[in-house]
Amino acid sequence: MANSILNAGELDGTVAALIDASRAVGHRGGYLECAQHAEEIFGQEFDTSHCSVADEVNAELTRAENAYDHLALLVMDLITKALEHDDWCARLKAILDPPEMVEVSDEEEPAGDDGEGGGNGDDGGNGDGDGDGDEPE
Fold it and tell me: According to the UniProt entry, which residue ranges have a biased composition of type Acidic residues (predicted)?
């Protein structure tokens, strides 16, 4: 269940937007704070119009937070609907049971030695298929 939630593309996009917006707000806040210190030290107004982050970042952060707070994931909707029924446990198992895993061996078979002789009746020696090693005439 956790993988279904954490691997949801909707969650990735929403979290990425939230991170970007919060970084932009932090960058702008830091820039403005430095400008304020410069104004206090030098006694004159510091031009903050050169900041690469616009005033709109606060609104963008609010939108990103709202999108995150109201994020709806398909798997969560399925779980919520399953919990509304008397047989919720069986329904959750049907939703969340992982697919059957196939066991894979780490051992490799030797290349070309499958015990079938290549399937063409040839001995692999000289190309005539008789197994005596002589050249065809």
Answer: 103-116
